[in-house]
Amino acid sequence: MISHRGVSDRSRMLRLRISSWPDLKARTEAVMVRFKHRYLLCELVSDDPRCRLSLEDRVLDGLVRNTITRVHGTFGAAACSIGFAVRYLNAYTGIVLLRCRKDFYQLVWSALPFITYLENKGHRYPCFFNTLHVGGTIRTCQKFLIQYNRRQLLILLQNCTDKGEREAIQKSVTRSCMLEEEPGEELSDSASEEATVAME
């Protein structure tokens, strides 16, 4: 026979268990969640100019996937295969934007230094990837790329010896600085100071 105290303890315990469970309806409702990605902005560096011109989306996609498999094994390949894509590719500048899932972006990032050549149409070109920026959106990567290109133009301007070349680069720098910025977005003071110093 169960004492009165034992019944109250059991019912209190049962009430605690039931109250600690979330509402069944809340647990079964579908919740829309945005998949979070990371974008790796990289630059393909090669001494051979034909390397950049032979760059294609599918070749780069296969090369990165094979490198991830080689470095991180089947776990890395499976983890990175979902959501991985080459989002942007510029064969002239060698700029590449890779998209991957947020949870596994470090696997992709750590595999990039192991890419030492690019093979396309029977030709093999030595190259490597320089990771410039890791961002949460394409927009942040785009902003970084604009600032990066401005700095590269200023470096070219400082190293320029020919007068005609110097004038062409000065026009490019002023054009890039004069482009209409979006509201609330201005060229940083350090970038504008660098531009005026480099043009003098």
Automatic annotation (TrEMBL):
GO cellular component: multimeric ribonuclease P complex; nucleolus
Main location: nucleus
KW tRNA processing (keyword) present: yes
SUPFAM superfamilies in alphabetical order: Rnp2-like
InterPro entries, per database record: Pop5/Rpp14/Rnp2-like, RNase_P/MRP_POP5, Rnp2-like_sf
Keyword DNA repair: no
One of the record's GO molecular function terms: ribonuclease P RNA binding
Recorded superkingdom: Eukaryota
UniProt keyword terms in alphabetical order: Nucleus, rRNA processing, tRNA processing
Biased composition (Acidic residues): 179-192
The family this protein is said to belong to: Belongs to the eukaryotic/archaeal RNase P protein component 2 family.
Protein role: Component of ribonuclease P, a protein complex that generates mature tRNA molecules by cleaving their 5'-ends. Also a component of the MRP ribonuclease complex, which cleaves pre-rRNA sequences.
Quaternary structure, from the entry: Component of nuclear RNase P and RNase MRP ribonucleoproteins. RNase P consists of a catalytic RNA moiety and 10 different protein chains; POP1, POP4, POP5, POP7, RPP14, RPP21, RPP25, RPP30, RPP38 and RPP40. Within the RNase P complex, POP1, POP7 and RPP25 form the 'finger' subcomplex, POP5, RPP14, RPP40 and homodimeric RPP30 form the 'palm' subcomplex, and RPP21, POP4 and RPP38 form the 'wrist' subcomplex. All subunits of the RNase P complex interact with the catalytic RNA. Several subunits of RNase P are also part of the RNase MRP complex.
Protein name per its UniProtKB record: Ribonuclease P/MRP protein subunit POP5
